[in-house]
Amino acid sequence: EGKELYEDGVVTHHAATYATSLLAGNHVMVVSHSQGNLYANAIYGYLRENFGNNLNFAAFGIAAVATPANFVATGDAYVTSSTDLVIDMVRRRYPVLPSNDSTVGESPASDRFGHGFSEIYTNSDYLIRNHTKRVMTDTLARLSSTLTTQAAGPITATLTWSSPGDIDLHTYEPVLTNFGEKNEKITNIFR
Q1: Residue 106, Cα to own-chain centre: how many angstroms?
Q2: Rounded alpha-carbon distances, angstroms, from residue 187 to 125, 172, 181
Q3: Which of 84, 43, 41 is nearest to 64 (CA)?
């Protein structure tokens, strides 16, 4: 889509976790706040770039809160307060999605920048909480209406492990050629 992809250890770690969940047929909803939106978009881009058609991207959603980004990669809804001074400062320098909630008014002394997830966006003292909740429930509803399927192929396997270490996977083609750590090329393609 012409967007520059950002990648670091956080992106690749979360992408691997989400890919494993998607491959298992689960839905994934990321609720991202502030800079987390930039990471959520980067993770989505990384998944698209590295997994292509092997993942059900309709089962992945981003509920964006106080976003400094100029897009939500999944096309899901977002909420940003018109009195969020942090996002307003970012907006002065970079293209950012427009604010779409003006219900906060003056920010409290506990969050004079009007940016906190719990202080502003999910605080029951502010109506923006309803907007934030609607962004999350709409994203979740879209995901819930999506059927998920496991990756398709003659054989599908998902490997997961929860401890650090090394794992070697070896498979054998019909002519018993080992495809593994030392022999990285498949010599016989199934026809």
Answers
A1: 31
A2: 65, 10, 14
A3: 41
Q: Report whether 173 contacts 186 (CB < 8 A).
A: yes
The residues, ordered by sequence, that sit 6+ positions from 36 with a Cβ below 8 Å of its Cβ are 30
d(CA 11, CA 29): 15
pLDDT mean values, one per 10 residues, the chain (191 residues): 69 93 92 96 94 91 97 97 97 97 90 95 95 96 70 53 55 51 44 32
Q: The tokens 């969940």 sit on which residue?
A: 21
Q: Are 119 and 155 in contact (CB under 8 A)?
A: no
Its pTM stands at 0.74
The tokens for 167 are 């794992």
Instruction: Name beta bridge partners: 79.
Output: 65
